[in-house]
Amino acid sequence: MPSALEPRYKIDPATGQLFFEIGRSRTIVGDIDLAVAWTTDEDGNGCLHKHGKAAQVSAKMAPVRVIDPSLKIATIPWEAIRHPEAGPKILEEVNKCLSISGRVSRFEERIGEIAAAHEIKVFPRDSEASGPSLQI
Predict the structure, then answer these.
(1) Could you list the residue range(s) of the whole structural domain that residue 128 is in?
(2) What is the pTM of this model?
């Protein structure tokens, strides 16, 4: 069980909206695609750089991609987040990546396993970012 100070994404049961909370701060994110951006060093250690609304993550990470082309951005569609069985597991994995240093290095693999187990199809999204982006 996460502590009250750990950052986490949750679905508000009353509104059905995605929100992000840390401590007593709570921000409604909405019904949007969620993105996670990270790099991995030569030893396979992951470093989380940004998370949140997909368009904002792509925009903020564009300058980083120029410096480090290994930057990866995974975009998780709203449809997957709202999936009754896969959605909670996806958010749990995102939350673990926010709390556990280096966990993000295997993010694609873990989210891919969840998607495959629940037969979630790839939901194509328009991407404003240059370079590769995983779309779950």
Answers:
(1) 32-135
(2) 0.85
Residue 47 has pLDDT above 60, yes or no: yes
Q: Output the pLDDT for position 122.
A: 46
Is a pLDDT exceeding 50 seen at residue 66?
A: yes
d(CA 22, CA 35): 18
- CA–CA distance, 25 with 71 (Å, rounded to integer): 29
Q: Does a structural domain hold residue 17?
A: no
Alpha carbon distance 9, 17 (integer Å): 10
Mean pLDDT, range 71-81, rounded to an integer: 92
CA distances from 55 to 61, 108, 109 (A): 10, 19, 23
Number of domains within the chain: 1
Contacts of 92 (CB under 8 A, 6+ apart): none
Tell me the average pLDDT of the chain: 85
* Rounded Cα–Cα distance for residues 113 and 51 (Å): 20
Burial class of residue 19 in the structure, from the number of CB atoms within 10 Å of its CB (0-12 exposed, 13-18 middle, 19+ buried): middle
Q: Which amino acid is at 61?
A: M
